[in-house]
Amino acid sequence: MKSYDYLIVGSGMTAASAALAIREVDKKAVIGMIGSENHAPYNRPPLSKKLWHGKPEDTIWFKLPEDNFDLVTNTRVESLDPEHKQIVDEHGNRYGYKKLLLATGGTPRVIPNAPSEIIYYRTVDDYHMLRSWLGKQAKIVILGGGFIGSEVAASLVDNGEKVGMIYLEGLIGERVYPKGLAEYVTRYFQGKGIEVHPSVDIQGIEKKGNSLVMHARDGQDITADHIIAGLGIIPNTELAAAAGIAIAGPEGGRGIIVDEHLRTNFENIYAAGDVASFYNPALKRSMRVEHEDNALTMGKTAGLNMAGQVTPYIHQPYFYSDIFELGYEAVGELDSRLDIIEDWVDPYKQGIVYYLRDQKVRGVLLWNTWGQVDAARKLIAEGETHTEADLKVRLPER
């Protein structure tokens, strides 16, 4: 059995950020990292964004500690024994630790009994597979109208592909955008040649010859050469739960519960990234966040705390997207069911959308509006009540 000062389960963005932070504080510590992917850590957002627009693939890989660092890839951890500070992998290998970080991320939601050819878009291998489909006049259909589905659809069209989108909602981004903006985005996608299928519930998929046939609840069949599914992820909490680590309910995103220093209910076990349920002091609620900024910042904070540099996680993570000529940054809760105030410089082309509950700002969408993330964070954290009139002059000049 090999033992480590710090052991990280997971090899994604959070894990890499944590390893680098540990090394900043503890120069000589022995660090181990075990991941199920067959790759070293890499940055995921470019897989649906910049790699499709000329960014070299070699720019996505994280720099990792060079000395006293072990990376084990393509290996799942099967069990965790907090009492003896050990984990066991799928091959029966044991690893000891003084402090452990669970950065296990999530697993894509899948369609039951669907053909194996479907890509549940998340990894660099998925990106390579999708690249192999290009230039063959194939009909590519995307299931899901959320962030990933929208970004992949736009990137494929920018690369000359014929694309369709199928989603449960009536409009693209309907759960996030105010209705008028969602209608605009849907028309915009149609104007780019994307065939949209709103309010369609796919019940099953079968392979017929070289085609894939999707059967909808309303009786229609939709045929494609290839299918990409962007249906969200399920946090990988099984390892933690089996070891007695506390898991949040639906209100906390069903992640591993952590305190302000990202510790679980076991003193020497931490969790961070997509899998962690943390308390957001600005929003005054527990939540789980699946975006890059949270992964990197939380990973760094976990690493600092593990290495003895006490650092509370009070960060308000932001997220962003690039879709054709449209782009945005956002902070907080974006839910179209909240009260919404819209402040447009040019309707649906540039402006700010505020999401409120009880007249308090819970989220801010900066639509083609840049350099205002910190101001939006401050606005949410203040927790004051607002009217439409005062919000429209609240953020700095755009």
Question: Which labels suit this protein?
Answer:
398 residues, alpha/beta, FAD/NAD(P)-binding domain, Enolase-like, domain 1, 3 domains, five-stranded parallel beta sheet, 25 strands, 32% strand, globular
Instruction: Quickly count the domains.
Output: 3
State mean pLDDT (0 to 100 scale): 96
**Number of helices, where a helix is a run of at least 4 consecutive DSSP H or I residues:** 8
CATH superfamily of the largest domain: FAD/NAD(P)-binding domain
Helical proportion, percent range: 10-25%
* Beta-strand fraction estimate: 25-35%
Structural class: alpha/beta
What CATH calls the topology of the largest domain is FAD/NAD(P)-binding domain
Q: How far is the first residue's CA from the last residue's CA?
A: 58 Å
The largest pleated sheet is described as:
7 strands, mixed
What is the general shape?
Answer: globular
Spatial extent as radius of gyration: 22 Å
Structure described in brief:
The protein has 398 residues and is an alpha/beta fold.
Q: What would you note in describing this structure?
A:
There is one protein chain. The chain is 20% helix and 32% strand. The protein is an alpha/beta fold and 398 residues long. Strands 1, 2, 3, 4, 5, 6 and 18 form a 7-stranded mixed sheet that branches. A 5-stranded parallel sheet has the order 8-15-9-10-11, with helices on one face. Strands 21-22-25-24-23 form a 5-stranded antiparallel sheet. The protein is globular. The mean pLDDT is 96.
